[in-house]
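> forwarded from #structure-qc
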């Protein structure tokens, strides 16, 4: 009887130790992911002045000293005409000079009324299947894209930077409807946009925009 009680007590002790270790690992994992988000310091602004027309490329030197270039092309490599986008068009968005340590969202977003504020909301929302880890590595054109090299999030994003050293990327965007989720790009000013992802949500250094208009 005493042996059975002792064995039961030992089993409970082992179970508690295992559970404690599992909880400790979980807490450390959460801390490793959450703390960088909470402690991220903004690098400042991107330094971009919006083009006055519908330019297919823009260049700006940010507060972090990086010179970012954002451009939009057609599938055959020509400069895209951003003055008459149509739902279903496929455009190629390229960038260089970005900080690969900061993930970005690429989509069509409102141009903020106040310079230096977050471009939001955006058409397309999060890439379909992103948070379920189903969008990673897809080559399909999406209405929005998520790029990151962060080990904790890369499995959920569409892709990493193509050239992290030079902060270069390329994504294919499928132009979504002009009116969607509280955004009306037929009446409001919108732009092909890059902005920092949720891990650096208050950091405006990766914000670059190329104004667009929808045909009709």
């Amino acid at each position: 009887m005493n042996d059975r009680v002792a064995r039961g007590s030992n089993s409970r002790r082992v179970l508690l130790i295992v559970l404690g270790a599992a909880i400790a690992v979980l807490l450390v994992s959460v801390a490793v992911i959450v703390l960088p988000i909470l402690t991220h310091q903004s690098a400042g602004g991107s330094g971009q002045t919006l083009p006055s027309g519908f330019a297919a490329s823009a260049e700006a030197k940010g507060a972090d000293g990086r010179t970012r270039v954002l451009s939009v092309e057609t599938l055959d490599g020509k400069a895209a005409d951003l003055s008459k986008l149509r739902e279903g068009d496929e455009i190629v968005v390229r960038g260089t000079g970005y900080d690969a340590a900061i993930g970005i969202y690429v989509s069509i977003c409102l141009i903020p009324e106040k310079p230096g504020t977050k471009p939001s909301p955006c058409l397309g929302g999060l890439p379909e299947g992103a948070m379920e880890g189903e969008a990673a590595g897809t080559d399909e054109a999406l209405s929005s894209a998520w790029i990151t090299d962060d080990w904790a999030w890369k499995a959920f994003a569409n892709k990493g930077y193509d050239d992290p050293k030079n902060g270069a990327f390329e994504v294919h965007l499928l132009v979504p409807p002009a009116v969607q989720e509280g955004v009306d790009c037929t009446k409001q000013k919108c732009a092909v946009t890059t902005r920092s992802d949720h891990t650096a949500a208050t950091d405006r250094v990766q914000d670059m925009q190329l104004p667009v208009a929808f045909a009709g």
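QC bot note: Residues 57-212 form a domain with the Immunoglobulin-like fold (CATH 2.60.40.230). Helices lie at 2-39.
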